[in-house]
Specification:
about 70% helix, about 5% strand, WH_DNA-bd_sf (chains A, B), WH-like_DNA-bd_sf (chains A, B), 3 strands, Four Helix Bundle (Hemerythrin (Met), subunit A), homodimer, GntR family transcriptional regulator (chains A, B), 2 domains, three-stranded antiparallel beta sheet, DNA-binding
Chain lengths: ~230, ~230
DNA sequence: AAGCTTAAAATTGTCGACAATCGGAAAGGC
DNA sequence: GCCTTTCCGATTGTCGACAATTTTAAGCTT
């Protein structure tokens, strides 16, 4: 059984831990592209060529194809027949619709959560909030933004409705494509303030207030995105 | 250029209109399986074997695979590695979550629609409503159910938020997997009544009332599904 | 020089064969 | 007689090569 071609990926220590195939590979493709979008390394309109991805990246072409299909269904890329995948470009109307959908679903989650949140949930939110504030104070804007998204995602998860959680997570995932939030520092600041007040409202079991704060925050974000989208329509 | 193997699908008149490949083929797989589920020809737990689908059905194996992947992402089938696809079996908790998500999103849509609906939209809803009532009167339960789903889908579409429309459509699509509604006739009847009252409320621009009616309808449906799910858990 | 036609390069889409994996059935041991 | 182990059939997952399509670029005509 010791042999010349020793099932490469299993034996060689220099070989990477991950395989180039399987459901994991598809997942990796999705994650890498998503991260690239979140870091603005991929801009709206950029083409995603299968061969480049399967070469330079971490999977074979089939896994890349499946990953792109999933991203298309999630709405992060658009897949035109015989033309391949490109990063989506949202219209102002779509931006409004995305934020409205978040307002509705996160609002419902906050109302539920005000009644049902336990100490463990509170601790998780407070922890994220503290790290978000720290990242903001240290000027780590990217990390602050990431933690802000984690805050909203955690609210959904704690509310316990997996369907709505999945939906909102999709909406959050395409947030980096809505705009850079050039005024990053300021918007992060509003985020920290709003999240703090949201947690306070939740602890008072004041679901309506938590929802109202979150709605105002999302509307402010929407205004920023719309300003960017109309200012630089290229 | 006239030859022995004449690009089969293009020339032969006996050949089917559709090709066995392409994005259309994948779409066809999704549609056929969805319809089979809606007609209870596929029950929760049934296995979906790729070869059987690509043989008896209308696409090559690759299209079948992609179609199954999409159905899995939509939540209609579950895809276990190396085991293939099976029709999902929802837990009572998941049933609650699905209906709650519909209540939230359809409610928001109805509130918007009360303000913005024009005559064309009214006509579309009334038309569906009339056909639904006719189907119920004639005892065509399956068609009545289909039109009931169309009513809810059309409400979302008229409200104009594509994101929420897509989400609710997914939730509606898995309704046949929640239960048969053995009391089909009666639940269809409640549906017709509730939809009629919903349209009436919309025409009065009473969004809150429309939402309330719809919520009660969905909660009644949820109770039915839960009764079935707990009664016959096999 | 501008515009059209045609060829070639790049990219996606498709197919069949093979490899890996799982479930169950048969054989063997206690 | 029951449990464990091994093998086999069935099914999914993977890969490379080829076909179809689109885009790019050059060449030719006007």
């Amino acid at each position: 059984m010791d042999q010349i071609v020793p099932r490469t990926a299993d034996v060689l220590p220099s070989a990477p831990e991950w395989r180039k195939s399987g459901p994991e590979a598809e997942e990796r493709v999705v994650r890498l592209i998503t991260e690239a979008i979140q870091q603005n390394r991929l801009q709206p309109g950029d083409r995603l060529v299968e061969r480049e991805l399967s070469d330079g990246a971490v999977a074979n072409r089939q896994a890349v194809r499946q990953g792109l299909a999933r991203l298309a269904q999630a709405g992060l890329v658009v897949l035109t027949p015989n033309r391949g995948a490109t990063v989506v470009q949202y219209s102002p109307e779509t931006i409004r619709q995305i934020m409205q959908a978040r307002i509705v679903n996160e609002g419902a989650a906050l109302r539920d959560l005000a009644e049902t949140m336990d100490d463990a949930g509170r601790d998780r939110l407070v922890d994220i909030l503290r790290r978000e504030a720290a990242a903001y104070d240290d000027g780590r804007v990217t990390e602050a933004r990431h933690l802000s998204r984690a805050f909203h995602a955690t609210v959904m998860e704690l509310a316990g409705n997996e369907m709505m959680t999945r939906f909102v997570n999709e909406l959050i995932a395409c947030q980096p494509l809505l705009g850079n939030s050039r005024t990053g520092k300021q918007s992060s600041f509003s985020g920290v303030i709003a999240h703090t007040r949201t947690v306070a409202a939740l602890l008072r079991k004041d679901g309506a207030e938590a929802e109202a704060i979150n709605t105002q925050l999302l509307l402010a974000l929407e205004r920023e995105f719309l300003r960017e989208a109309t200012a630089e329509p290229g």
